[in-house]
Design goal:
By secondary structure, the chain is α/β, with parallel strands linked by helices. 41% of the residues lie in helices and 20% in strands. The strands form six sheets. An eight-stranded mixed sheet has the order 2-1-11-10-12-13-14-15, with helices on both faces. A hairpin with a 2-residue loop joins β1 and β2. The chain is globular and about 75 Å long.
């Protein structure tokens, strides 16, 4: 090994030297996937790094990246890290004002942006960005201001830079305890804070993740679609893939993931629960429309899968009759399903970033798609727990990673210690102090419990716990998971803080609901029109009553409102990783919520 592997750029350059002209990354261009080799990527990283040095970038300077996932994002990231700078990723979906907050708070000196749309966002707030000296665009943009240059120009500067050894000196001078990145929390509860993650944090976490699934390696091919601005996407679907030397195929967007899965047939994927919910709903919808015989076969196969899945995840031998039934179900149904999805080669599908419904988790594992639910936070680089082939429990996020300690506080809060825990919040010593116990445990803000095998169960966010007017503590996420597992429910938010009973805002699966309405002869013009139809409201009333039957009386949804549109990032109701911002939803639908409690006040 030519370089230290105590930092990410050292790992990358070592792999590039080893794999040379093999494919490193594939991206969609002109309708088909284009490959970039490890060597070509390394050359671009070196030229970009030297270009940044020629612009006057010093070690520990802040380099911003405001872009969606693309091969250029990787170049900017690895170039900045290789020359000892700290990079500051900004979600591609952020507004100009949100980007300005991060640039100013971090003191970003050079900013990479992907295209004209992102450049325009920055130019709209340019006068407020005192620390910013240069903007580098991934696309060539005509007529841009003087302080804007293209990535090609920056690489040309690097190629012409006189001190060719400067890159090597900087790379070898990196201290593992140096700050590698500032990842700003998505701000579900207030202004985002810059989480300080060191090279040591990242390397510890990718090595821990690898140790939990040592079967992965150089022969694997990953499909990456989680934003690398997010710690889960960054550590697991980028850096871990670099470490094992896997091919990384880039999904075009969240909306094209299913198509991209079919094109690339990945062996590894990392996702948030939203994708599993969408695939699950799509499969059930298709099965529902199948001819009677096919539908009956599918239902029989799912019944077999449900009886077999606990053996499947533990890799234990099934009883003889069940094994025969499962093999038949696999040959007739599951194998064809995996092939249709492009998941016929999938070896591990990690789910993180939020709670995955146990029913959906069982469904995927039952049909031969190994989904391993995990847990972590930006502040923990992010992974602390994950289900594994040797220790697996449905409903849990698995055991702790190696060298990670997990403890449950007296009030139920999950506490973490380990080498992946952040250095602190940037320029916020009080917030940093408040995030740790007096004896150094990081306080996650999540409530949970552990079983006898050390598997962790997340019961809710501490801040999300609903305390009703009767003083009952209720975890809304469990109820919401039950609701969204239904084919006709796309999103759900449970309401009830300080109220006498629980209510819910329900976003229907409009595609399925529209088809149901047509079958029933219910005419409608728009989604808003559809959700107001008495027959539709009655349909959901019966459905919700059935979904809630296993919950205690105090946890029952007494009233609900059907919404005519989905929660979205654009309206501020979802974070870039598709988590619901409850505060924004409560504000946006204040009147609808109050209407559900009108009788309560009369």
């Amino acid at each position: 090994m030519a370089y230290s592997e105590k930092h990410v750029p050292g790992i990358f350059h070592n792999r590039a030297e080893r794999y040379q002209y093999e494919t490193f990354v594939r991206y969609k261009h002109a309708g088909k996937y284009t490959a970039v080799s490890w060597k070509e990527m390394q050359n671009r990283v070196i030229k970009t790094g030297l270009g940044l040095i020629s612009l006057g970038c010093e070690p520990r300077d802040m380099i911003g990246i405001f872009s969606e996932n693309c091969w250029e994002w990787i170049v900017a990231d690895l170039a900045a890290l290789s020359i000892g700078c700290t990079d500051v990723p900004i979600y591609a979906t952020n507004s100009g004002a949100e980007a300005a907050y991060i640039i100013n708070d971090s003191g970003t000196k050079v900013l990479f942006v992907s295209d004209k749309e992102h450049l325009d966002k920055i130019l709209s707030v340019r006068k407020r960005l005192d620390s910013l000296t240069k903007i580098v665009t991934f696309e060539k943009i005509e007529g841009a201001p003087e302080d804007v240059m293209g990535l090609d120009e920056l690489m040309a500067l690097g190629e012409a830079f006189a001190d060719r050894d400067a890159f090597e000196r900087r790379l070898n001078a990196i201290d593992p305890e140096d700050l590698a990145t500032l990842i700003y929390t998505s701000g579900t509860t207030g202004q985002p804070k810059g989480v300080m993650l060191t090279h040591a944090n990242f390397v510890a976490n990718l090595m821990q993740s690898y140790a939990s699934h040592p079967i992965i390696g150089h022969d694997d091919e990953a499909l990456s679609f989680l934003p690398w601005s997010h710690s889960l996407g960054r550590t697991v679907s980028l850096y871990l893939m670099i470490h094992i030397g896997a091919v990384i195929s880039l999904a075009e967007s969240f909306s094209t993931v299913l198509e991209n899965m079919q094109e690339t047939r990945p062996t590894l994927m990392v996702s948030v629960p939203r994708l599993f919910e969408k695939i699950h709903a799509g499969i059930l919808a298709k099965a529902d429309k199948a001819p009677p015989l096919k539908k009956k076969l599918f239902e029989w196969a799912l019944g077999v899968a449900d009886r077999a899945v606990d053996y499947v995840v533990q890799r234990k031998a099934m009883p003889g009759v069940l094994k025969t039934q499962y093999d038949i179900a696999d040959a007739l149904v599951f194998k064809k399903l995996r092939e249709a999805l492009g998941l016929d080669r999938i070896r591990i599908f990690i789910s993180g970033g939020g709670p995955l419904s146990t029913d959906i988790d069982r469904f995927f594992n039952g049909i031969g798609i190994p989904v391993h639910n995990g847990y972590g936070l930006t502040e923990t680089s992010p992974v602390t727990n994950v289900n594994r082939f040797d220790v697996f429990a449905f409903g849990s996020v698995g055991p702790a990673l190696p060298d990670t300690q997990v403890r449950i506080a007296d009030d139920g809060e999950i506490l973490i210690k380990g080498p992946q825990v952040m250095k602190g919040y940037y320029n916020k010593p009080d917030d940093t102090k408040a995030a740790f116990t007096h004896d150094g445990w990081f306080m996650t803000g999540d409530i949970g419990r552990m079983d006898e095998r050390g598997c962790l169960y997340i019961t809710d966010r501490k801040k999300d716990i609903i305390v009703t007017a009767g003083g009952k503590n209720i975890a809304p996420q469990n109820i919401e998971n039950t609701l969204v597992a239904d084919l006709y429910i796309e999103q759900a938010v449970v309401i009830g803080e300080g109220r006498k009973y629980l209510s819910a805002l329900i976003v229907p699966n409009f595609k399925e609901l529209g088809e149901y309405a047509k079958k029933q002869g219910i005419s409608f013009n728009t989604n808003e029109d559809l959700v107001r139809k008495p027959e539709i409201v009655a349909f959901y009333e019966a459905k919700i009553r059935d979904l809630m039957k296993d919950y205690a009386r105090v946890e029952q949804i007494r009233k609900f409102t059907l919404l005519g549109r989905e929660f979205s990032i654009d309206t501020g109701e979802l974070t870039p990783t598709l988590k619901i911002k409850r505060k924004v939803v409560n504000e946006n639908y204040k009147e609808a919520i109050e209407a559900m409690y009108k009788d309560d006040r009369d």
